[in-house]
Automatic annotation (TrEMBL):
Enzyme kind, highest EC tier: hydrolase
UniProt GO molecular function: 2',3'-cyclic-nucleotide 3'-phosphodiesterase activity; ligase activity; RNA 2',3'-cyclic 3'-phosphodiesterase activity
Species of origin: Streptacidiphilus jiangxiensis
HAMAP family: RNA_CPDase (MF_01940)
EC number(s) per entry: 3.1.4.58
Short sequence motif named HXTX 1, residue ranges: 40-43
Motif (HXTX 2): 123-126
Official protein name in the record: RNA 2',3'-cyclic phosphodiesterase
Known role: Hydrolyzes RNA 2',3'-cyclic phosphodiester to an RNA 2'-phosphomonoester.
Length: 185
């Protein structure tokens, strides 16, 4: 099972970004758009792990969330990685977000999980392009340049599993469990 730990924007913040993306959805319908319900901000990608890892992570991540303040964030602008992946940027309490990601990685290591360290580059993945569609990603990214979403508080820390779905490049996500941050009711 592929596991990662993430934050999810609230529905109204996702709806706000989806509305800004409407012209790109129509113009670039051939891109592989992520489903809005799958939008997330990855804090730590733990990789392919045995299912037996999940019971080790649950109590540790629950404690981490209960002890951690909820970061205030917002979706902002757009960009791309390698001209093949479209994303929306993240702004707000980024120092707190980086601390949280560090604590998530420390928690996973304390549970005996070895994983490839990747620096946190806060973003929300929106779409992927096949070879030859790079200019569409660049144009869609430019279309988000002026987007600034509202500020929101991350409510929960999510442990997510992912599987490759039907068709090339199709990834399906499912929340395994989510825990409220300190101060959230």
């Amino acid at each position: 099972m592929r596991l990662f730990v993430a934050l999810a924007p609230p529905d109204d913040a996702k709806d706000e970004l989806a509305a800004a993306l409407q012209p790109a959805y129509e113009k670039y319908s051939h891109l592989r758009w992520n489903r809005i319900e799958d939008w997330h901000i990855t804090l730590a990608f733990l990789g392919e792990l045995p299912v037996a890892t999940v019971p080790l992570l649950r109590p540790a991540l629950a404690r981490l969330a209960a002890d951690h303040p909820s970061p205030g964030l917002r979706l902002n602008g757009g960009g791309h990685f390698d001209e093949r992946l479209l994303w929306s940027g993240i702004e707000g309490e980024l120092a707190g977000l980086h601390r949280l990601a560090d604590e998530v990685r420390d928690t996973a290591r304390a549970c005996g999980i070895a994983f490839q360290e990747r620096p946190l580059r806060p973003h929300l993945t929106l779409a992927r392009a096949k070879r030859g569609q790079e200019t569409d990603i660049l144009s869609a990214s430019a279309g988000l340049a002026d987007f600034t979403g509202r500020t929101w508080q991350a409510e929960r820390l999510h442990l997510v599993g992912s599987n490759i779905g039907r068709g090339p490049g199709v990834i399906r996500y499912r929340d395994i469990e989510a825990w409220r941050f300190a101060g959230e009711s």
